[in-house]
Amino acid sequence: MSDGPSPSHVAPARLRAWGELLRLPNLLTVPGDPLAGFVLASLALGAGPVPLARLLAALAASGLLYMAGLINNDLHDLAEDRRDRPGRPLPSGRVRVVWAMAAYNALFVAALLSALFVGSAGLVLAAGLLGMILAYNNVLKRVPLVGPLAMGSCRGLSLLVGAAAAGNWAGALAEPVLLSAAALTLYVAAVTAIAAGETLAQPLALRRWLPAVVVLAWLAAVQAMLGEPLTRPVSLALSALAVGWAIRNGLALGGTVQPARAQRTVGALLRGLLLIQAALVATGSGAWLAPATALVLFWPVNAMLARVFPPS
User: In terms of CB atoms within 10 Å, which end of the chain has fewer, N or C?
Assistant: First the structure.
């Protein structure tokens, strides 16, 4: 007679719980932000050989901060989740609070150590991203308008960390980089605003078109800034796909939107970040087409994981 679940069953259950805590599908959308910033800064500066070590450090810093921020968010919302979402990993006890706190602190430290290798601008921007994550989780998330913009700015700062790896402050302040950081902030803010009411049946009116408007204006402006867009056919094709996906999901939010449909569409709009990132990375052409292709291939993986792990 067994006294409890066998180790062979416990380990997968624990891994699944951590996957839920870290919103595993959304993690695939994280590397593309600093990677896009790096490519855009490199193009703007006419940079020479790729500083691979700094790029990898930027990718690590952004990813680690993202994961730490998710854990911090659930730790902060623990009392609310015990009341309203008892099945989540922390209130259900599937992930112990003490281990979540240890992971959260370790991830933040590792992120800042990684940012040291990006350079002075990367370290400052990573510290700013850390501050914004904590401000959002602890204060800003429930403030109308400010909350979604704060969430979006976390993604924008992540893009800037990648740009800093290409050219320190000159890379982070390059025009296409600043434009993309601002547009990414607005896109994620628009999706967050849609998600804010995903537990209620409601009409979204013009709000449902905000992501599509932002993507169209953003990608068109980047192509114009870089000049000669016809020399970047892959980037143009991916840009068209990204805009088309945002429009498709805007159409899906017509009428009175039920919670299940809103949640599915929010996940789809977050998945659309992969197409946007791929379009931006592909502006580098040449060797950058390989990582752009990888981002596109993340798309079906994200969709598959979203069936198992809730993305929001």
Answer: N
pLDDT digits (tens, 9 = 90+) for 25-70: 899 999 999 999 999 999 999 867 789 999 999 999 999 999 999 9
Helices within the chain (DSSP H only): 7-21, 24-27, 32-45, 52-76, 78-84, 89-92, 97-116, 120-138, 146-172, 175-195, 210-226, 233-252, 259-281, 289-306
Long-range contacts formed by 92-95: CB under 8 A, 24+ apart: 92/17, 94/13, 94/14, 94/17, 94/20, 95/14, 95/17, 95/18, 95/21
Listed in sequence order, the residues at least 6 apart from 164 whose beta carbon sits closer than 8 Å to its beta carbon are 37, 41, 58, 118, 119, 121, 122, 125, 171, 172
Spatial separation of the C-alpha atoms in residues 215 and 308, rounded to whole Å: 28
Structure tokens belonging to residue 196: 């804010």
Q: How far apart are CA 262 and CA 277, in angstroms?
A: 23
All residues at 6 or more sequence positions from 8 whose CB lies less than 8 Å from its CB, including other chains? none
Beta-bridge partner residues of 256:
203
Q: Which two tokens stand for residue 226?
A: 């870089």
